[in-house]
């Protein structure tokens, strides 16, 4: 089965998922969308109000801001795949709970397995903690790390940046700083492993 069909099947399975209680209060599942052959996958936290209404990821203000950042980097939504840690909106926009993230990981892993990206951009603390649980986003944002066969690139969440101009500046700088790598994701496989941080290999 090709990537596109695998992702379509996963989208259907996510729609029918009852692995945690989040589906009960959500209007729609938001599996994710984008290029099934993308070399870069962006992972946010959870669908927001507009995403829940439309069943699509990053379609509100934060999504528009992300589109601008991608544009500045020479990318578009057609180049990437974008999804969230949990696929149904938590009630009242609360943070997803650890048990909900744990229940939903199976879908994220299947999506990543189907796409096989070179780079995973984590947006915000929840997706960062999935890959680097001991790290704080304030300390390592913008610093890509090799993890297995992929490079994980931690970034602030665009929604957080919209609420805080300092974070917005940091987020924009991180896109600029990593522009070359984001434009050439195949080069992620050639990363030198000479520097290490807590067992992760750093680009710098
Ligand atoms: S949030 Fe994830 S695990 Fe929970 S019901 Fe939705 S798809 Fe299933």
Report what the structure shows.
By secondary structure, this protein is an alpha/beta fold. The protein has helices spanning 3-15, 22-25, 49-54, 61-72, 98-115, 125-131, 137-140, 158-163, 165-177, 179-183; strands spanning 33-34, 40-44, 80-84, 119-123, 145-147, 150-155, 196-197, 200-202. Strands 1-3-2-4-6-5-8-7 form an eight-stranded mixed beta sheet, with helices on both faces. The N and C termini lie far apart (38 Å). The model is unreliable at 193-204 (pLDDT under 50). It contains ten helices and eight strands. The protein has a single domain (9-184), classed as 3-Layer(aba) Sandwich (Uracil-DNA Glycosylase, subunit E). 43% of the residues lie in helices and 15% in strands. α1 (3-15) runs antiparallel to α5. Iron/sulfur cluster binds next to α2 and α5.
Summarize the structure.
By secondary structure, the protein is of the alpha/beta class. It is 43% helix and 15% strand. It has a single domain, classed as Uracil-DNA glycosylase-like domain (Uracil-DNA Glycosylase, subunit E, 3-Layer(aba) Sandwich).
């Amino acid at each position: 089965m090709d990537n596109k069909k695998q992702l379509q099947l996963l989208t259907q399975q996510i729609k029918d998922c009852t692995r945690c209680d989040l589906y009960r209060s959500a209007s729609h599942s938001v599996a994710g969308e984008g290029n099934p052959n993308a070399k870069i996958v962006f992972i946010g936290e959870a669908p927001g109000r507009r995403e829940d209404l439309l069943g699509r990821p990053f379609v509100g203000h934060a999504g528009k801001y992300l589109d601008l950042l991608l544009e500045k980097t020479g990318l578009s939504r057609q180049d990437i795949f974008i999804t969230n840690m949990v696929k149904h909106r938590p009630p009242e926009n609360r943070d997803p709970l650890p048990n909900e993230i744990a229940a939903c990981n199976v879908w994220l892993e299947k999506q990543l397995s189907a796409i096989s990206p070179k780079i995973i951009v984590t947006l915000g603390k929840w997706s960062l903690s999935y890959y680097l649980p001991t790290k704080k986003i304030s300390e390592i944002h913008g610093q890509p790390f090799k993890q297995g066969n992929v490079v994980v690139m931690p970034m602030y969440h665009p929604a957080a940046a919209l609420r805080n101009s300092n974070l917005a500046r940091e987020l924009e700088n991180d896109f600029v700083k990593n522009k070359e790598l984001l434009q050439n994701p195949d080069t992620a496989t050639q990363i030198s492993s000479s520097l290490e941080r807590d067992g992760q290999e750093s680009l710098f």
